Amino acid sequence: MDVVLAVTNYVTKLVSTPSAIKVLLLDSHTTPFVSLAASQSDLLAHQVYLTDRIDNPRRDRMPHLKCVCFVGPSEQSLEEIVKELEQPRYGEYYLYFSNVMTKRAIEKLAEADTHELVREVQEFFADYAPILPYLFSLNYVPSVNAPLYGNTSNSWNPGALQRCTQGLAAILLSLKKKPIIRYQKMSGMARKLGGEIQHFMKSNEALFEFRPTKVPPLLLIIDRLNDPVTPLLSQWTYQAMVHELLGIQNGRVDLSLVPDIRPELKEITLLPQTDPFFAQHVNHNFGDLGASIQKLVQDYQVKTKSQSSIETIADMKRFVEEYPEFRKLSGNVSKHVAVVGELSRITARDNLLDVSETEQGLAGGGGGHSGDLKAVQNILLSPQVPPANKLRVAILYALRYQKSSSNAIPSVIDLLKKNGVGDEDCRLVNVILNTAGADQRQDDLFSNENIFSRGKSALKGLKGVENVYTQHSPHLAETLDLLFKGRLKESSYPFLDTNAAATKLGGSDASGAGAGQRPQDVIVFVVGGATYEEAKTVSKLNQELASSGGGARILLGGTCIHNSSSFLQQLATAPFPPSYSLPPPDTASSSSTADRPALALQLGGINVSVGGPAGTGVYRSTPGETSLGVQADGLTREVREGVKDLWGKVRQGVEKLA
């Protein structure tokens, strides 16, 4: 289940025919997919003379060349091909589409081919971005004009649903998988997408006639909002950190804003397929990376010294033969030194180590509410921390302590507003609580013990970095662990097809049935976007499964690959109603109860208080106060109702005596 290999094979097939000098035409949809799977030199090796966009009206007419078109199945791309065939610029056309074409679309192409220049029409299911062998993206980055959600956080935008259905279908067809589908029960979007995939497989049965396997593959569809914590955390492994701080778009990184950057380094590529150093260190932490960069530079220096000694004809011949490799090594060294240098600069500038420590404490068991609140307040008050990082910390605090009666969420939001975070961004705290809060999530993210109880990791190799916090484990790790133990409950992750439930693939709720059948090939799709931290988890688990000899494999994908900015932007641009920006009912009450005691009994002029800012004790009430009452907002609902019931009976007895 190697998606990079699958797309590379498709690209190789489509440029191999015809065996002549040719032009490759792409559209905006397929361009990133091809660029991730094939380099310019790969295309040149197959006689691709020119690569261009089909919607470029300035292309020259070259009838002596053959033309290979690889485009998406959209109406816009179809219209561009129709216009091309009506006024052809090339001698022959080989048309390839990245997904299933309708009968009407093929008829439309036939009608447009009046010059009879089309030699071939095929479907090559390379309709996704192969990021890593075990990670893919559908490149659906939501915007105001193309949101992911409908008018609620549990409904699809129709265009997004169509794209995700097409992309997931392409994954299954390119890997030759006809899976059993399980989905996250509380996610209406996961269920809807699963139903669309099931319908697609039934409507195109001929395409899914693959050789059956002893253990059927599994497609597990989960929702990003069930784990909003992972995309909000600072990242400390190479690929994830670059994406968080600089951004990776289809393997490209923009360094144009880096101070004193050389012109040739203003935009670089970071692809494991073409960069051995990046492939080796993609999941290494920042500290280990420093030592590796140092070794890379030392190796380059040794190579440079060896090239400086050219005295004989043999030396000259060796230099000419090794010069391309030497130039490539030189560019690679400069690229990675520039990237790591910029990451180090941003880390120091934005005080990321302190921010990350606070984040990790909130993501784990926490150091207790008072300690965590103080740490959050210190981050929000720090002029060194950028507003975006303050917002992330505040959201993590709100998620962690939403159900705590002593939470200070309103005061934290007020502190955000007073320290450089705009009102529009501050509303995202409540948007997150309304879409991914405790009542919306299927699973409990904060039940684990504090990650810092396991100690902090000391770093070596990079000056200026003392500790790296990568102890957080995405919720996906726990889900996959249960799945491969055959204990993933059907009540939480049901089978879409009730007939498939009999397989007990990955676990079920059948009483006395023991563990379910262990899956072999698992495709996990995250509605709302995956993260590189989750990809690292999948990579590690794949290595463990391979070493155990079980033959099981995991592939991770998502609507896109998130960093914290894109995740918050996805929610900010969603067409949710204004009520999503208001505190949830259980959180709204915290503004009036956060500073109250957990239990307060009013006994005329005496007040008995348990908890609260004044502490536990017996206090005199306002002079002249003779009322009887109870306040128990700080207790759980059951205890609160019991206390009030008891107090009601006591009060009735007192009133009778009076």
Describe this structure in words.
This protein is α/β, with parallel strands linked by helices. Helices cover 43% and strands 15% of the residues. The strands form six sheets. Strands 6-7-16-14-9-8 form a six-stranded mixed β-sheet, sandwiched between helices. The longest helix is centred in the middle third of the chain and has 37 residues, at 313-349. The N and C termini lie far apart (81 Å).
Strand adjacency order, main sheet: 6-7-16-14-9-8
- Biggest sheet descriptor: 6 strands, mixed
State the helicity in percent bands.
40-55%
Radius of gyration: 30 Å
Alpha-beta content class: alpha/beta
State the oligomer.
Answer: single chain
Number of helices: 22
| Ends apart, CA distance between termini | 81 Å
**What is the overall silhouette?**
globular
**Strand residue content:** 5-15%
The count of DSSP E runs of length 2 or more, i.e. the number of strands, is 21
Low-confidence stretches: 448-468, 588-596, 621-628
Query: How much is the average pLDDT?
Result: 84
